[in-house]
Amino acid sequence: MGWLIARRLLLLLPVLFGILIAVFVTMRVVPGDPARLVAGTDAGPEELASIRKELGLDRPLAAQFAHYLGDVLRGDFGRSFKTQRPVLDEIRPRLVNTVVLAVLSTLFAAGLGLLAGVAAAARRHSKFDYATMVVAMIGVSTPSFYLGIVLIVVFAVVLRLLPSGGGGTLAHLILPALTLGAATLGLVARMTRASMIEVLNEDYVRTARAKGVGESLVVLRHALGNALLPIIAVVALQFGFVLAGSVLVETVFSYPGIGWLIVESISMRDFPVIQGAILLVTFLSVLVNLFADLLYGWADPRVKY
Amino acid sequence: MRIQDRRGTWTLMAAALLTALAVGLGATDARAQQKSVLLATQSDAARLDPANTNDVPSMMVQSVMFEGLVGWDKDQKLAPQLAESWTFADGGKVLTFKLRRGVKFHDGEEFDANAAKINFDRWMDKANALSAAAQLASVDRAEVVDKYTLRLVLKEVNGAILQNLGGRRAMMNSPKALAKWGKDITLHPTGTGPFEFVEWIPKDRITVKRFEGYWGTKPALEKITFKPVPEPASRVAMLEAGDADMAAPIPIQDVERLRRNAKLQVMGVDSMDNLHFAMNMQKDLFKDLRVRQALNYAVDKEGIVKNIYNGLAIPLTKSPVAPALWGHSNVGDYYKYDPAKAKELLQAAGVKPGTKLVMWIPDGRYVQDRQVGEAVAGYLREVGLDVQIQKMEWATYIGRVAQKPDPVAPYDLAMLAWAVGTQDADWGMGGTFLSANWPPRAFNLAFYKSDVVDNALAAGRQTTDGAKRLEAYKVAQKQIMEDAPWIFLVVYKFIGAAKREMQNAYVIPFGGAVVKDASFTK
User: Fold this and answer.
1) Which residue among B27, B399, B418 sits closest to A32, beta carbon to beta carbon?
2) Which residue is closest to B1 within chain A, CA to CA?
């Protein structure tokens, strides 16, 4: 297992380097002049030139990249064009916020999804089963943007139970986590149900029942243990989507996370922030996938690394 | 799964939810005291250094902490701030300020002529690459005459110099703080204003508290929190939920509903944005005056005001600039909707039906920009022109229109609204109408060149006599309406909303809200 981790981390290097080049080049190829955006509409050519120089944009692309790479290797991600703050100071608190949100929403989605899926599978074709699957379908197909606004109107404006937006307390996290987790919840519920139904039809389940094992033990121990495997894979993959999907949710709930930061930085062509943020998010996604692989090995004794 | 198991789970979940709700209620109650204001804005500030700022959200926050020699009063008139009075000498080339005594910066330092000079030197030093430098281009040097007298020596007469100083960038930072923080001064704003900086949690909030050593009238509020809420629907919901005391801007489609809400008040002000399409006069088609006039007759501005802005706008038919801009005059009533006349003019000019036009729109930059663009395209199609709309996000748009044309800019029609922090016609007209300001120099996107206008704008700059300046700008405005380099569209309102019991809070034509003088009736 140690070897697996080492190899994966080693593989991370070319991935990050590739991402870095891709982001660096893409941002400079798309139209839009960061100096103009920083300087505002009333700056003349002289001011623009001095700002361009200040931002290091007057040098050839290759020189800019070499310079940037050198800085990054020393752990210096530069300063934001827009705010002039060090990029890591911009990113760190935002990334923590988004990870907290993503973990919470994934836990909520996986937990409740699993529960609903198992229950639905155990009572297949019952009213409960249909109701659960309809709700799951709605969860999967409702755009998070719309769901977020509906939740705000219901829980903040009408019922006045939860804050309408912002960050800081656990209460601020509930609505965003629900919104962000809704799609995953639906997906996990449906996956669990399908997976469980398949396993419940297996010979060994019939054997267990024939031996006189109680139904709840059959479901929870014999069936769920095996049904869990594909679900772990889905949840891990979803975590990446959750990180990406947090862009919309963060905007709707004014939640100060990394998605909002990236979107705003793109609209300002704030190259250092975009580069740093994408790099760190990539790093995080790879780590999560690695963790999922390890979890897989734990859940399935046949898998050996 | 047994029934009991499930009930256990539900109980647990219900308990968790209740706990969370309790936390939520606690959070809401914590700021129930009405000595403080939470203002929901559209975006976080970029920088808190006025001298290096270009965005309304930053300027809105800065305006409660900083002051300049002159500033804007509630009616948007230029008023003394840190200067008590001023006199021009040498035909306008020397400007002497008598400074206010007993003014302290938030760090306890005294504001005097020396402090002012240190700020001027910093703004004008090219090596600092500050945005303030552009507005002070006509200043040669600042001199300390005595402790409370500051003299500005200008390179040439500049009729708009006071407006430039009031233009939201020339605001004083404490010399001690400047020396201490260097480039990081943007994180440690230290002005003389009625509120002092407390904290800035990026994308979450900026908090300021009342500055007890303020020289002027003490504010009723003890605390202001600026909260960025980028999604307009969420911003409105936050106000309706009572989580915010005020929110701005408010989308037009929400205004009616908020007006019916007894707990809220809606406020609006005619903005400084003169929304228009520049017609690219580098192209042969638009060199013909009849074509430019025809396009103006073809568009129903009243219809746009009524249907796209729900009446929250005025048609731009009496001047090319907004009434909120200093120097504005009503110079007539031009181009009333008349599609038949438009067709006639197009025919006379030999424009064939089906002529293709490329229209550029900066999607999401201006109030209802896309809807207006689509409406204008529709009106032009009715008179036989074939309009192709190209929408771009602002960063792309401004990059492309501000390029050096190669050799001709690719658009036929380009949307813009030109609002300036100086609130003065010098740059408010010059930026878009002077022939010296064709892209990439500035934003004369029509590539308009009129000697009458160039001379009038120069005349307006070369005197400090307000009446003479007004007369000069009037001449320019009349000529521009006649020449029709733009399809003149509308000036829309900026809308804000607040709790009903909040008083003395308002929105301003340049954008953003002013809450520093606010109080609550109960």
Assistant:
1) B399
2) A216
Is A33's CB within 8 Å of B402's CB? yes
**Residue B22 reports pLDDT greater than 70:** no
CA distance A119 to chain B (A): 7
Token pair of B54 as six digits? 């270009």
Hey, are the CB atoms on B394 and A267 less than 8 Å from each other? Answer: yes
Question: Is pLDDT above 50 for B30?
Answer: no
Judged against a pLDDT cut of 90, whether residue B124 lies above it is answered with yes
Q: Binning pLDDT at 50, 70 and 90, where does residue A305 land? A: low
The verdict on a CB contact (< 8 Å) between A160 and B440 is: no
What tokens appear for B442 in the block? 């500035």
C-alpha count within 13 angstroms, C-beta hemisphere, residue B336: 2
Phi-psi label, residue B296: left if phi above 0, alpha if psi -120 to 50, beta otherwise: alpha
Closest residue, chain B, to A31 (C-alpha)? B396
pLDDT band at A4 (very low <50, low <70, confident <90, very high): confident
The answer to whether the CB atoms of B129 and A54 lie below 8 A apart is: yes
B334-362 residue pLDDT tens = 999 999 999 999 999 999 999 999 999 99
A60 part of contact set with chain B, CB < 8 Å: no
Ramachandran bin of B449, using left for φ above 0, alpha for ψ from -120 to 50, beta for the remaining angles? beta
Cβ A138 vs Cβ A186: under 8 Å = yes
Residue B5 has pLDDT above 90, yes or no: no
Interface test with B, best of A36, A41, A161 (most B CBs within 10 A): A41
pLDDT tier for residue A166 given thresholds of 50, 70 and 90: confident
* Residue B404 in this model has a pLDDT that exceeds 90: no
For B44-71, the DSSP string reads --S-S-GGG---HHHHHHHHHH--BSEE
CB–CB of B27 and A172 under 8 A?
yes
Query: Is residue B19 over pLDDT 70?
Result: no
For B275, how many CA atoms within 13 A lie in the half-sphere containing its CB? 26
Among A47, A90, A167, select the one facing B134 at the smallest CB separation. A47
Select from B495, B66, B71 the least CA-distant residue to B259: B495
pLDDT, residue A244, reads 76
| Beta-bridge mates of residue B451 | none
Residues A43, B134 contacting (CB under 8 angstroms)? yes
ipTM of the complex, rounded to two decimals: 0.85
pLDDT exceeds cutoff 90 at B7:
no
Report the predicted TM-score, pTM, of the whole model to 2 decimal places: 0.88
Q: How far apart are CA A40 and CA A34, in angstroms?
A: 10
Put simply, the answer to whether B398 touches A94 (Cβ < 8 Å) is: no
DSSP structure string for B205-255: EEEEEE-TT-SSPPPS-SEEEEEE--SHHHHHHHHHTTS-SEE-S--HHHH
Inter-chain residue contact B230 with A264, CB threshold 8 Å: yes
Residues of B in contact with A261 (CB under 8 A): 203
Q: Report pLDDT digits (tens) over B112-121.
A: 999 999 999 9
Please check whether residue A172 touches B, CB under 8 A.
Answer: yes
Q: In a 3-state reduction of DSSP, which class is residue B273?
A: coil
- Separation CA A62–CA A59 (nearest Å): 8
